[in-house]
UniProtKB/TrEMBL annotation:
Keywords: Glycoprotein, Membrane, Signal-anchor, Transmembrane, Transmembrane helix. PANTHER family: GLYCOSYLTRANSFERASE-LIKE PROTEIN LARGE, GLYCOSYLTRANSFERASE-RELATED. GO terms for cellular component: membrane. This is Glycosyltransferase family 49 protein.
Length: 358
């Protein structure tokens, strides 16, 4: 079958013996997925109304497609969002921390490392173009990835986005956050390696969890990268404790992530981080609008990322700045860090999109 727009492909009735149904079963998918039938959102009368003999005990159903179109109405359309294409088998504590991230097929290997390292809840948005050939290829690769380890099926919820629009990063971030199944989330790029166990440390701290529950704090995990590209390829040699990290910083092998663009991370105040005593948590006092750290915060309450920001440059910074001006304070966890795994960027696309903005 030649690549065609799925929006055209699925407007006609599906024959009973359509080979696409067999293909859906091959990839462990509900055949209705290929017809884009979706599900329904259930709404019930409030308990207060029912206690007074008002309302109705019968639920009212709203088409899932309609609900999602309203939830992401600022995004480019048409688009198809499929929550929980794959759903993790584990049950998560509400006070756990879900990593929310975005993945393309080229970064599946890095994503697999994140899953194996974290061993906790992850909510991931995966985008694919709306052509039959692209979807077939993606589903095949995704199924292989999901079956590649027990951890993948145990901890990862996968949400699929099908449309013709590349790099709607803030929309994809919002999808991963909306469908996370814990009260707290971490906004993280897939290329970072989790060097320290910040999750356990945070959950064991009454003070930190109290701040998270209040919803007025976001916690920064400082980001680093190797000065030489080749040094950052093999995650197995990355430091696992701050003492080793500081030695690499002192020898100038490791430094602030994207040091060439200082506004992106310098509000973390790396000099203070290097000198901080064990267990220290300090407040970010020099916030500026280009700051884009990797943060943990309450899922419900902080502003959502503005979906009108698309493409490379400024989308995450805009999201975090809106959180900041809404009243959220940022705090740095001085015992912890993440390190970027070296990979080649799509520099041509980046340069072109930045040029169009200037």
């Amino acid at each position: 079958m030649s690549p065609r727009s799925l929006w055209v492909l699925f407007t006609s009735p599906t024959p009973k013996k359509d080979p696409r149904l067999q293909e859906a079963r091959k990839y462990d998918l509900d055949p209705r997925f290929l017809q884009f039938s979706g599900g329904q959102t259930e709404w019930r009368s409030s308990n207060l109304a029912l206690q007074h003999g008002l309302g109705s005990p019968e639920p009212f159903f709203v088409d899932e497609e309609l609900t999602l179109s309203k939830a992401f109405s600022s995004s480019m359309r048409p688009t198809k969002i499929i929550p929980y294409l794959y759903r993790a088998t584990a049950r998560f504590d509400q006070d756990d921390i879900t990593i929310t991230t975005l993945v393309t097929t080229s970064r599946f290997q890095a994503f697999s490392r994140m899953v194996e390292r974290y061993q906790g809840p992850i909510s991931v948005t995966i985008h694919v173009g709306n052509s039959t050939s692209e979807i077939r290829s993606l589903l095949k690769s995704l199924r292989a990835l999901y079956l590649s380890s027990k951890s993948m099926a145990t901890y990862v919820d996968v949400h699929l986005v099908i449309d013709a629009f590349d790099r709607q990063f803030n929309t994809w971030r919002n999808i991963a956050r909306l469908f996370a199944r814990t009260d707290y989330v971490m906004m993280l790029d897939v290329d970072f390696y989790l060097c320290t166990d910040f999750r356990t440390a945070m959950r064991n701290s009454w003070h930190i969890m109290h701040q998270l529950r209040d919803g007025n704090a976001a916690f920064v995990i400082p980001a680093f990268e190797y000065v030489k590209y080749a040094d950052g390829v093999d995650h197995r040699i990355f430091p696992k404790d701050k003492r080793t990290l500081l030695g690499l910083v002192k020898s100038k092998r490791l430094g602030m992530f994207h040091a060439s663009w200082a506004p992106g991370h310098n509000s973390t105040d790396y000099k203070r981080y290097y000198a901080a005593p064990p267990g220290d948590v300090y407040k970010v006092t020099q916030y500026q609008s280009a700051y884009e750290p990797y943060v943990i915060f309450k899922k419900d309450g902080p502003p959502w990322c503005d979906e009108r920001f698309i493409g490379y440059g400024g989308n995450k910074a805009a999201c975090l700045f809106e959180m900041y001006i809404s009243g959220i304070s940022y705090f740095v966890l001085a015992d912890h860090f993440i390190i970027h795994q070296s990979h080649r960027y799509e520099e041509a696309a980046r340069r072109n999109e930045v040029r169009l903005r200037t």
